[in-house]
């Protein structure tokens, strides 16, 4: 492995001295030296390689049980096969997202409706999940980085292979390996306490990846980011007590809060043989204590069987949650809200004070020793805690265009992009079902969704109504509306374009139940006469004479029943034709 030349990270930010060391410069604590030659990984002062993978997750907890178990097992397998050569962590960053947009619909009424609807999306939340992999093997690195051992090449190839393996195991979550500026911007954002974009040039660290002053007040349970005299207050919560049973609902419950927060989950796997040996030793010790809880012994024995069958693995977990606020009062209120919610899950959260700076730096590779409050968990527990649950943002585009039909606010206070389609594939079908009781607003909802489709070029819709539910909407948008339950005044196939003459000939012959050669000639002649008229004059009445003289058994007599005064005259004598589909919407009430 070769590395490009690297500059020192100078102190654009200072920190208050802590008990951990006398270092006061960010460059002393921030362990990264630079990018690998390929731009995919960061190297720290101890020779560890670190990769950051962004999961473009579009998976929510609202899944059917089969799909839920499928994803659970995929996560569990990936974590079990992580191996004991890596530290890995899952960082979930939830930020407030501001969306400002105006409707592209031209009709004034629908545009006003659409713009009013968009107002509620000015502030929502977005959660991004990152999977961090760091090699455990440490090789002391100098800042000159002149020569490297063969083991560094092996380390790089091993990390490449592990990432490819994860890409396959977790393909449902659409993994993206961050590289170059995106990779360094991720870590710069953690340092600065806000989103930061960094351009480091040709694999070099800029001298200013931090532009924020960080202050840890003595004997306080918060710390402060100061950027251009703007203060952001922050604190860390840690899990103090784990429940006996874990649930995947923890993170999705947190997403329902109107709070910006980051969750950091740190893990490293224990060698399987070591896990089995230590567990057996624990069982042997407890068996000698006759007063010890036999139920716990049975649980340990069952755990040992699952370990030996390689059904699960044991891992060490550290769980931290970081909260942000504009004042200490707001920070305290948000902290209490989160603690109250998590307590209901039988998880006791502890607000850090003495260990605040340790929690801050523990997020960065080469500072794994600062990750406090570690617990042993199984790969089952891990797959519950790490769901990669997204805000389920839906589809950003569909087969009709490069934007969703409309947006909705989810239970997690995030934006859901609605489309009638399951995927954005070009040939995807738009299958959507709306279920509800009578009078509950099904037609109103569908009317709104259809109105938002006016933004798509060349959009056409044909819908079948019941009880005139779509009539008001039809009048607003000036759609074609045909009521089959009453007098039909707007169906006139004769106004179709001349290219459909063959269809009209077949239709008239079938309608009149005439099929002789003479009848075929009569219909062909009548249609020629029809297309010699203005479109507005093309009616059965105006072309009736072209069918010949009336008389018993003639095709002209067969036509009488379909003329306006005939028994079926209500059907095909409209002054206009709703079936011409020139308008975007055509509705039929049945």
Please compute the radius of gyration using only Cα atoms: 35 Å
Binned strand content: 15-25%
Inertia-based shape: elongated
Q: How much helix is in the residues? A: 25-40%
Tally of separate helices: 17
Low-confidence stretches: 1-24, 143-151
Number of DSSP-assigned strands: 18
Largest beta sheet, briefly?
Answer: 13 strands, antiparallel
User: Kindly, what is the distance between the CA atoms of the first and last residues, rounded to a whole number of angstroms?
Assistant: 72 Å
Mean pLDDT: 82
Computed structural class? alpha+beta
Q: What's this, in brief?
A:
The protein has 590 residues and is an alpha+beta fold.
How would you explain this protein's 3D organization?
- By secondary structure, the chain is α+β, with helices and mostly antiparallel strands.
- Among the domains are: 26-270 and 313-385, no CATH class; 493-573, no CATH class.
- It contains 17 helices and 18 strands.
- The strands form 3 sheets. Strands 1, 2, 3, 4, 5, 6, 7, 8, 9, 10, 11, 12 and 13 form a 13-stranded antiparallel β-sheet that branches.
- The longest helix is centred in the N-terminal third of the chain and has 20 residues, at 150-169.
How does the SSE layout of this entry go?
Layout: H1 26-29, E1 32-35, E2 42-44, E3 49-55, H2 65-80, E4 86-98, H3 108-118, E5 123-135, H4 150-169, E6 175-177, H5 180-192, E7 213-215, E8 223-227, E9 230-241, H6 249-254, E10 261-269, H7 272-287, H8 294-308, E11 314-325, H9 328-343, E12 348-351, H10 356-361, E13 375-378, H11 379-385, E14 406-409, E15 415-418, H12 442-451, E16 461-465, H13 471-477, E17 480-483, H14 501-512, H15 517-530, H16 540-543, H17 555-559, E18 585-589
Parallel strand pairs: 16-18, 17-18
Antiparallel strand pairs: 1-2, 2-3, 3-5, 3-6, 4-5, 4-10, 7-8, 8-9, 9-11, 9-12, 10-11, 11-13, 14-15
């Amino acid at each position: 492995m070769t590395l490009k030349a690297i500059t020192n990270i100078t102190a654009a930010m200072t920190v208050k001295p802590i008990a951990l060391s006398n270092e006061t410069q960010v460059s002393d604590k921030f362990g990264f030296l630079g990018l690998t030659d390929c731009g995919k990984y960061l190297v720290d002062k101890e020779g560890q390689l670190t990769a950051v993978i962004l999961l473009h997750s579009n998976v929510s907890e609202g899944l059917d049980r089969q799909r839920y178990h499928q994803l659970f097992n995929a996560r569990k397998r990936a974590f079990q096969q992580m191996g004991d050569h890596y530290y890995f962590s899952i960082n979930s960053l939830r930020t407030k997202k501001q969306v400002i947009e105006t409707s592209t619909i031209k009709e004034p009424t629908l545009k006003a409706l659409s713009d009013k609807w968009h107002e509620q999306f000015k502030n929502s939340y977005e959660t991004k999940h990152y999977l961090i992999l760091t090699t455990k093997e440490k090789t002391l690195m100098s800042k000159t980085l002149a020569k490297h051992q063969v083991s560094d090449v092996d380390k790089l190839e091993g990390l490449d292979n592990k990432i490819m393996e994860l890409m396959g195991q977790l393909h449902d979550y659409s993994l993206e390996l961050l590289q170059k500026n995106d990779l360094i911007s991720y870590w710069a954002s953690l340092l600065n306490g806000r989103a930061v974009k960094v351009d480091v040039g040709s694999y070099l660290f800029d001298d200013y990846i931090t532009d924020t002053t960080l202050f840890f007040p003595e004997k306080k349970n918060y710390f402060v980011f100061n950027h251009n005299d703007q203060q952001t207050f922050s604190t860390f919560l840690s899990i103090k007590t784990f429940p006996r049973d874990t649930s995947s609902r923890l993170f999705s419950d947190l997403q329902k809060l109107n709070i910006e927060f980051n969750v950091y989950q740190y893990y490293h796997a224990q060698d399987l043989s070591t896990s089995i040996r230590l567990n057996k030793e624990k069982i042997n010790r407890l068996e000698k204590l006759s007063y010890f809880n036999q139920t716990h012994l049975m649980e340990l024995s069952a755990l040992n069987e699952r370990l030996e069958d390689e059904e699960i693995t044991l891992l060490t977990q550290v769980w931290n949650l970081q909260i942000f606020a504009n004042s200490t009062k707001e920070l305290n209120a948000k902290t209490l809200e989160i603690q109250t919610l998590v307590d209901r899950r039988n998880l006791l959260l502890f607000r850090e004070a003495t260990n605040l700076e340790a929690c801050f730096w523990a997020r960065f590779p080469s500072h794994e020793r600062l990750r406090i409050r570690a617990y042993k968990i199984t790969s089952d527990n891990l797959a519950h805690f790490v769901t990669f649950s997204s805000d389920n943002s839906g589809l950003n585009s569909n087969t009709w265009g490069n934007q969703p039909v409309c947006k909705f606010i989810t239970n997690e206070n995030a934006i859901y992009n609605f489309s009638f389609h399951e995927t954005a594939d070009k040939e995807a079908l738009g299958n959507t079902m709306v279920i509800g009781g009578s009078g509950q607003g099904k037609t109103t909802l569908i009317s709104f969704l259809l109105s938002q489709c006016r933004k798509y070029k060349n959009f056409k819709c044909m819908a079948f109504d019941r009880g005139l539910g779509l009539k008001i909407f039809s009048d607003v948008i000036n759609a074609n509306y045909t009521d089959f339950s009453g007098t039909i005044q707007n169906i006139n196939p004769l106004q179709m374009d001349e290219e459909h003459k063959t269809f009209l000939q077949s239709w008239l012959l079938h309608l009149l139940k005439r099929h002789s050669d003479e009848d075929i000639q009569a219909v062909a002649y009548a249609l020629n006469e029809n297309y010699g008229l203005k479109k507005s004059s093309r009616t059965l009445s105006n072309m009736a004479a072209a069918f010949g003289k009336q008389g018993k058994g003639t095709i002209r007599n067969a036509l009488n029943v379909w003329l306006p005064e005939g028994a079926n005259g209500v059907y095909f004598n409209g002054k206009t034709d709703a079936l011409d589909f020139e308008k975007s919407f055509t509705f039929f009430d049945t």
